[in-house]
Design goal:
single chain; 6-stranded mixed β-sheet; 51% helix
């Protein structure tokens, strides 16, 4: 006798998912493999197939996928010569897995599309501003200092664009200031050239009359009564003023029409020593002590001895005049940065930072006497020698002027060099 039961009841009894409850088939067979119970008597029973799990069981139970597209499992019934077999179609058992696989494909495809879209949006938000920034940089490189980048974002790219616009504005302002300074320098150079030529012409015209006045004053001095002290004082004053005028005219002529430099390799210390011997009498009368710090074995420098000697004399006289009431004039030579430096320092009041560049301008002076051409001539001569001159800080007070002159021959590798103090 074969018994039967509804498939849904079997699925509920076996506690399987509701989706599979109606698809499970249960079969109970005897020792010979004959069906004793089937869950759906309407389904034809394949005795051989139903007995397959029983025949392959090694320890009373077995599971296998048969050739009919079913997943089957069997188990001996304890205490009875019976075997319980259940099976479900593969398409039903794996249907949820297939659904999960299809959903995972859909989710992955959706994620990829969203990722590509987000990347495209982000790239447009970065690449476009960066491209605009590159274009603006190229415009500025070509001279268009009005180039700007439109700022439409508040992120890091927008901040970069704002900083670029600020930098471009500062660059344009700096270029405008440089252009104005250049124009001013050109106008000043033209004015100085005109004034220099005019002054040189006047000096040339006054030179001969001054010589006549000086000769007359000297003759008058010889004819004066030796007891006439007042007359002699006046004549000496006239001669002193004439000498000052001659010196001023000579400075004007030297600046307006500088002589060409006759360069030859010379020892800088020898030139400094000769110049200091000329100014030491003046320093002694002014209560100024001259100190030397000359580096030994300095390399040769291409220079005109007369012109570089004039540089040292001018700097030394400026320092002496700055020390009203005496002081110390220090002259130093050294090697620094591949050049020979001539340093002239004084213990006077010093030069304010805002005036350190102006003191080298022609006709600029803070003294009541002089033409204001002394330091201008110094810069002119030094630059003709390929060198530089500037006013440096002096921690102990006073002023320090440094003249840097290129060497006649480069310093060989490994040679000892003196560093700046």
């Amino acid at each position: 006798m074969v018994g039967s039961v509804a498939q849904g009841d079997v699925g509920e009894a076996l506690q399987v998912p509701r989706r599979l409850a109606g698809a499970i088939a249960v079969l109970i067979t005897d020792e010979a493999g004959r069906p004793v119970f089937v869950s759906d008597p309407r389904e034809p029973v394949d005795y051989e197939r139903s007995a397959a799990p029983q025949q392959s069981a090694a320890e009373g139970s077995a599971r296998h996928l048969d050739a009919g597209g079913f997943v089957a499992a069997s188990q001996d019934v304890p205490g009875y010569p019976l075997r319980l077999t259940s099976r479900v179609p593969v398409r039903e058992a794996l249907g949820e897995l297939r659904w999960l696989r299809r959903m995972s494909v859909i989710v992955e495809a959706t994620f990829v599309l969203v990722l590509v879209g987000a990347a495209w949006i982000v790239s447009r938000g970065i690449v476009r501003p960066v491209s605009q920034l590159v274009a603006a940089v190229e415009r500025i490189a070509q001279g268009d200092l009005a180039a700007r980048v439109a700022v439409s974002q508040k992120d890091e790219v927008g901040q970069l664009a704002e900083r670029f616009n600020d930098m471009a504005g500062q660059l344009r302002d700096s270029a405008a200031r440089i252009s104005d300074l250049h124009d001013e320098q050109l106008r000043r150079a033209e004015q100085l050239a005109t004034v220099g030529e005019l002054a040189a012409g006047i000096a040339h015209e006054l030179k001969t009359p001054l010589l006549g006045v000086a000769s007359g004053a000297q003759m008058l001095s010889r004819r004066l009564d030796p007891q006439d002290e007042e007359g002699r004082r006046l004549v000496d004053e006239v001669l002193q003023r004439i000498r000052r005028m001659e010196q001023a005219m000579q400075e004007l002529l030297s600046y307006a029409r500088p002589a060409p430099a006759r360069l030859s390799p010379l020892d800088p210390n020898a030139i400094v020593e000769r110049a200091l011997r000329l100014v030491e009498p003046r320093a002694g009368r002014s209560g100024v002590t001259v100190e030397r710090q000359l580096a030994a074995s300095l390399p040769s420098v291409l220079m005109d001895p007369e012109q570089i000697g004039q540089v040292i004399v001018n700097l030394a006289l400026n320092g002496i005049e700055a020390m009203d009431g005496g002081g110390i004039l220090e002259v130093e030579t050294r090697i620094a940065d591949g050049a020979v430096e001539l340093c002239v320092s004084d213990s006077g009041p010093g030069i304010p930072p805002e005036e350190r560049e102006r003191v080298f301008r022609p006709f600029y002076t803070t003294k009541h006497t002089g033409t204001g051409l002394g330091l201008a001539m110094v810069r002119q001569i030094v630059e003709r020698h390929g060198g530089l001159v500037h006013v440096a800080d002096r921690p102990e007070g006073g002023a320090r002027v440094i003249v840097s002159l290129p060497l006649a021959q480069p310093i060989p590798p490994g040679a000892p060099k003196e560093s700046k103090p």
